[in-house]
Amino acid sequence: MSREMIAILDFGSQYSQLIARRVREHNVYSAICRADITAKELSKGFPFCDGSRNGAQLQVKGLILSGGPASVYDEKAQKCDERIFKLGVPILGICYGMQLGCKILGAQIVAAEKREYGRTNISILDKNDLFANLPDSITAWASHGDQVGELGDNFVRLADTRTCPFAAVRHKRKKFFGVQFHPEVSHTPEGSLILKNFLYDICGFKGEWRMSDFVNEKIEAIRRQVGDAKVVCGLSGGVDSSVVASLIHKAIGDRLVCIFVDNGLLRRSERENVESIFQDHFHIDLRVVDWSKQFLDALKGVTDPQKKRRIIGSEFIEAFKSEASKITNAKFLAQGTLYPDVIESGFGDGNPAANIKLHHNVGGLPAELGFELIEPLRDLFKDEVRVVGEHIGLAEDILWRHPFPGPGLAVRIIGEVTPRRLEILRRADGILIDEIKSAGLYRKISQAIAILLPVSTVGVMGDKRSYEDVIAIRAVETSDFMTADFSKISFEVLGVISNRIINEVQGVNRVVYDISSKPPATIEWE
Ligand code: XMP
Fold it and tell me: Which among 167, 170, 182, 470 could bridge 453 via Cys, Cβ 3.0 to 4.6 Å?
């Protein structure tokens, strides 16, 4: 297992996560940290496994200073600890990171006469290290208003563009490199090679970080952390909680107890699938709590979306608590927190694990439950979670499942949630997913959902007037679920979906397709 890593100092770039991903693609572990992390903290290294005091320590062998929205001359601009340039580890500054590094090391930054936004042509002037094996000219993605104006005597110029004389530089004595463009984005086709040169030739990584090592290391870390206690895990059947459960089960076997809450708001066969995979196949101690009556009773007559969510949240806590209290010696609660949820709060106060924000918590479980948290995925991106899942033998079906919200079908029934309306939606949703799968679109579409509307419309069925419900279909494509495009499903496939729903789901006589993007529309309708 590689014990070395790259630390990325985040100056507020929208691409910081992308830098981390690109570095990991070269089999080098990377973590994002606050811009003002001190040289002392960096030289101590990072704990490999948050939450485990015995976790392996990773040594920082290179730094990347990210881009950022500010100008280095802004009073409020984020600065870094200048002593990081004395650590002796190579540093790559990207965009703002380059300007900041250059300024600290004696160059002068100015507002560019001509700003560069978008694609730009870079002429490579020096191919000794950062640009080794690159052609004489490359296209790259740039986005900057400031740039280096005077380089001074301490630097060597490595590249320029028509309007930017110092598009890339190297310090003569310190191992500091700066690029004014963004090697991390896909619009810079040679960017991956530039990063590889930095990681392998300049920092000296060998590309030894492997997901399989990560899995083994994580299993060990979980064993150390848990000791002989028990871990409770809220299982939803989604990718994250499924991978968490399987990983912990590999580590501590029977001392993992999973709780699956049947809230009556699940999709077709959802509970049965979870039982068959986790109980029958993996032999995990799975406790299914049937709390559907309580959920549906509490939701009776409620139409306000926020109220629905609050009710569902508090019923979930009740259901979970009632089951968890039956488990003796349960000390830990497992959560599927992912890296994007923890990045922004970063590291600080000399204790990197201390001030990490928790955005996620399983169904909003309160701290009063008294569990310690165990979060084995908190170092990973979503697609890396899938790779871990593959390593531990989870079926493709689970790994590529579209996300399903905690409040379940309730937020897809506009208006009151009743058993009859749930049944209509469940059947329509089943048909939608079947047809998306049989058209080979399931992996291309990020999330496909059916929504039951609170309006009835007139139709004609078998020569008779009908006055029935409307189902809306929404299918989106997105990489981060923050922004999304509606999916351009062909009319043929939409036609089949509509036909089947109207013919097979009693009570529905009309199907419509949602063609809004996010923003301004959200993915769910409530
Ligand atoms: P929106 O509707 O905000 O959804 O565009 C973005 C993603 O989040 C999911 N979502 C939820 N997931 N509990 C969850 O676990 C919730 O309350 C919730 N609301 C939305 C949604 O399905 C989409 O993937």
Answer: 470
235 lines ligand 1 (CB under 6 A): no
Please tell me the distance between residue 412's alpha carbon and the centre of ligand 1 in angstroms: 11
Predicted local confidence at residue 209, as pLDDT: 87
Q: Is 447 in the pocket of ligand 1 (CB under 6 A)?
A: yes
Q: Exposed/middle/buried for 173, CB within 10 Å: 0-12, 13-18, 19+?
A: exposed
Ligand 1 center to residue 172 CA distance, Å? 50
Strand 4-10 with 57-65, pairing: parallel
523 ligand 1 Cβ < 6 A: yes
For tokens 């990171």, the residue is: 97
**Residue 318: which of 306, 310, 330, 307 has the closest Cα?**
310
Kindly write down the DSSP assignment for every residue of 276-309, as one continuous string.
IIIIIIT--EEEEEE-HHHHHHHHTT---HHHHH
Please give the pLDDT value at position 288. 97
Residues of the chain with confidence (pLDDT) below 50 = 49-54, 344-363
Q: Which pLDDT value is given to residue 94?
A: 98
**DSSP letter string, 311-324:** HHHHHHHHHHHHHH
What's 275's DSSP letter? I
User: How high is the pLDDT of residue 1?
Assistant: 56
What is the SS3 assignment for 196-232? Answer: HHHHHHHCCCCCCCCHHHHHHHHHHHHHHHHCCCEEE
The pLDDT, as a whole number, for residue 217 is: 82
Q: What is the predicted pLDDT for the residue at 56?
A: 57
d(CA 269, CA 397): 14
pTM: 0.77
Radius of gyration of the chain (CA): 26
Pair of tokens at residue 420: 């009859």
Please count the other Cβ atoms lying within 10 Å of the Cβ belonging to residue 225.
23
d(CA 140, CA 99): 18
> Do 179 and 15 meet the contact criterion of CB atoms below 8 Å apart?
no
- Looking at the annotation, which residues are catalytic? 95, 182, 184
